[in-house]
Design brief:
204 residues, mainly alpha, 5 helices
Length: 204
C-alpha cells in the first residue's frame, strides 16, 4: 500500500474515534444521566480531554491524513515526487499534534479514574453534602465502597465507564498518530510507492 493510501486509512480511523470521545465527554457533564449544578460536575470533566484533546485537536491530523492520498505531487524544482515528499513530511507535524492531543486526554482520563466522581455522600431533607469520597483511588478494587455515593444513582459506574472509554480511545489515537510519524518518515525519505501524475510505473 502507498504511504499516502495508508495515511488515508489512518485518517478514516481517527474520525469515528474523535466522535466517540466528544460524545463521552459530553455525557460526563450529566453524571448518572442527570442534570446537576455546574459546581457538582467532576472537575476533570471541565478539562475536556475528550472534546479538546481527542476531539478538536485530532480533527486536524485526521483531515491532513485523508488528503495525502490525493495530494498533488506534480513537481517542484523539477522533481515529480517533491510535492508528495513534502506533504508526507508535513504530516509528521500534524501527527505530533495528534499525539499531544490524545496524550492530554489520556492523562486527564487517568487522573479522573483515580480520583473518582464527585457525588452526594450525605443527604437529609434540607442539605446535600457533595464530595470526592474516592480521592485515593481505592474504589477500583472494592466495588462495595461505591455505596458511599448516594446520588446521582450509578454515578460511579457512569464515571468509570466513560473515562475508561476516553482512556482507551486516547491510547488508540496515540498509537495511530505514532504509526503515521513512521509512515511519514518513510514517505518523505523514500517517496510514495505509487506512480505520480497519472504514471503507473511506480517511479518516485
Amino acid at each position: 500500500m502507498c504511504s499516502g493510501g495508508f495515511a488515508k486509512c489512518l485518517g478514516i480511523s481517527l474520525i469515528p474515534l474523535s466522535i466517540v470521545c466528544v460524545l463521552c465527554n459530553i455525557l460526563l457533564f450529566f453524571p448518572g444521566g442527570k442534570v446537576v449544578d455546574s459546581e457538582h460536575i467532576t472537575k476533570q470533566v471541565w478539562y475536556m480531554g475528550g472534546i479538546l484533546g481527542s476531539g478538536v485537536l485530532m480533527i486536524f491530523p485526521a483531515l491532513v491524513f485523508l488528503g495525502l492520498k490525493n495530494n498533488d505531487c506534480c513537481g517542484c524544482c523539477g522533481n515529480e515526487s517533491c510535492g508528495r515528499r513534502f506533504a508526507m513530511l508535513s504530516s509528521i507535524l500534524f501527527a505530533a499534534v495528534g499525539v499531544l492531543g490524545s496524550g492530554y486526554s489520556v492523562i486527564v482520563s487517568a487522573v479522573a479514574i483515580n480520583h473518582g466522581p464527585q457525588c452526594v455522600v450525605f443527604k437529609n431533607l434540607t442539605y446535600e453534602g457533595w464530595s470526592y469520597p474516592f480521592a485515593n483511588g481505592d474504589y477500583l478494587s472494592n466495588t462495595e465502597d461505591w455505596t458511599k455515593c448516594i446520588d446521582p444513582k450509578d454515578v460511579v459506574s457512569w464515571h468509570l465507564s466513560l473515562f475508561s472509554v476516553l482512556l482507551v480511545m486516547g491510547l488508540v489515537q496515540m498509537a495511530l498518530c505514532a504509526v503515521q510519524v513512521l509512515n511519514g518518515l518513510l514517505g518523505a525519505l523514500c517517496g510514495d510507492c505509487c506512480g505520480c501524475c497519472g504514471g503507473s510505473d511506480g517511479s518516485v
